[in-house]
Design goal:
This protein is mainly beta. It is about 0% helix and about 35% strand. The strands form 4 sheets. Strands 2-11-10-7-6-3 form a 6-stranded antiparallel beta sheet, with no helix packed on it. It has a two-stranded antiparallel ribbon with strand order 1-12. The chain has a two-stranded antiparallel sheet with strand order 4-5. The protein has no helices and 12 strands. The protein has strands at about 5, 10-15, 20-25, 30, 35, 45, 50-55, 65, 65-70, 75-80, 85-90, 100. It is globular and about 35 Å long.
Length: about 100
């Protein structure tokens, strides 16, 4: 399924719609108009109930350095400090120019 790619850290939100505060970038080569394109092994950090988030499903046909890219239909899970899942992650502000399937 096609969707626009994730590049902005604050464009990712947790189940409570809290934006991410930072991420550990894995891709340092592929840029779009708003920053580095996200890939599957990146860890997102939050400042609210959810403390960290991991992506579990990325794109099927688009990879960056052999890693699936993250787009609006990618799936991720947020966890609190105790390691209990807090809900899904979602890309709320994707790139307006870059689409990935």
């Amino acid at each position: 399924m096609s969707g626009n790619a994730m590049a902005l850290t604050v464009g990712v939100v947790d189940a409570a719609s809290t934006p991410a505060t930072s991420r550990v970038p894995v891709n340092l080569r592929v840029h779009c108009e708003s920053g580095l394109v996200g890939v599957l092994p990146e860890v997102m950090t939050f400042s609210a109930t959810t403390t960290v988030g991991n992506w579990v499903l990325g794109t099927v046909r688009v990879s960056i350095n052999g890693l699936p890219a993250i787009n609006t239909v990618s799936a991720g899970t947020g966890y609190n400090a105790s390691g209990v899942p807090t809900g899904p992650l979602r890309v709320q502000q994707p790139s307006t120019r870059l689409s990935a399937t």
